[in-house]
Design goal:
About 85% of the residues lie in helices and about 0% in strands. It contains nine helices and no strands. It is an all-alpha fold. It has two domains: about 130 residues; about 90 residues, no CATH class. Helix 7 packs antiparallel against helix 9.
Length: about 300
């Protein structure tokens, strides 16, 4: 199909891929765009006084128009190319542009109608909130006076309740202040006793010397631990390096010995059946054991120094 469209495979594949992406976009746009721009005014101010966010719908309109234009571009290109050949692809962009413009205009018209209905509901809700349920006419002063006489009794009851609460809070505040004063006196007395103990300890010179000696001993122990860790890490790295060097050396020596002997000698036969191989294995084991013994001895000396 791509060769029928443009005579080349890659432009046709790119066109179909673009069509698939735009089709997914068209299917996802209703879920991504903000649907509920304004709530319907149903006679209550709290349902109508929702932030006007009509400008947020512009990306949704553009996305829907672009997706529709892309899908029409792909379909028109396929149909025109099948019907009229390779030159039939040329009018497809114009048709896609017209379809995209029509979709954008239709979507914008629907949203303008919805916005007009919601603004009308907002006006009705505000009028109902100002006039009240029983008010059918009259001046603004009469409406406000009627509203005042309606809310005065609950306000007086609320003020009486608040007065009772304030009195209770005053009594509670006195009790809390007494408890806080007693707690502050207890904490102050305990703090003074602690300061007296600290002063007595500061006058006791032998105890201060013992405390300082304990601190120095802990510092020395920490330093010994650090030195131990440093020595262990160094000798551990040295032993690992020796092992890593000895293994390739064994292989090299085995290969050299085999070439000198003029026959194919395996590594196992060389190291465990020949005298030279046994000497090499024993020497490597002695070197490794010497490294481990020296490292342990130095660590023990550092610990008990």
């Amino acid at each position: 199909m791509s060769e029928i469209l443009l005579g080349q495979p890659w432009p046709g594949l790119a066109l179909f891929a673009c069509g698939g992406v735009l089709l997914c976009w068209f299917l996802l746009v209703p879920h991504l765009e903000p649907r509920d721009l304004l709530r319907w005014g149903k006679g209550r101010v709290e349902h109508a006084l929702v932030p006007l966010v009509g400008a947020r719908a512009t990306p949704g309109i553009a996305a829907r128009a672009l997706a529709a234009a892309g899908i029409v571009l792909v379909l028109a290109g396929v149909l025109f190319a099948v019907a009229f050949g390779a030159l039939g692809v040329l009018p497809a962009p114009l048709v896609a542009l017209l379809v995209g413009w029509a979709v954008a205009e239709r979507t914008a018209l629907r949203r303008r109608e919805r916005l007009a209905e919601q603004v009308e509901g907002l006006v009705q809700a505000l009028a109902a909130g100002l006039a009240g349920a029983e008010a059918r006419g009259g001046t603004l002063f009469s409406l406000l006076r009627r509203l005042y006489w309606q809310i005065e009794p609950p306000l007086r009851e609320e003020l009486g309740f608040l007065e009772l609460v304030v009195r209770g809070q005053a009594d509670l505040g006195e009790a809390l202040s007494r408890a806080a004063t007693e707690a502050a006196e207890k904490h102050t007395r305990a703090l003074l006793q602690l300061l007296a103990l600290i002063y007595q300890e500061s006058l006791d010179v032998p105890s201060q010397r013992r405390a300082l000696g304990t601190l120095l001993e802990r510092m020395r122990q920490d330093e010994r631990v650090r030195r131990t860790v440093r020595v262990e890490s160094r000798f551990g790295q040295a032993s690992q390096a020796i092992v890593l060097v000895l293994i390739p050396a064994f292989i090299v020596v085995a290969a050299a010995a085999g070439s000198l002997l003029g026959s194919e000698v395996s590594v196992v036969e060389f190291y465990f059946r020949s005298v030279a191989g046994r000497l090499i294995v024993v020497g490597a084991a002695l070197v490794e054991g010497l490294v481990v013994w020296v490292s342990r001895r130095m660590v023990r000396r550092v610990r008990w120094d």
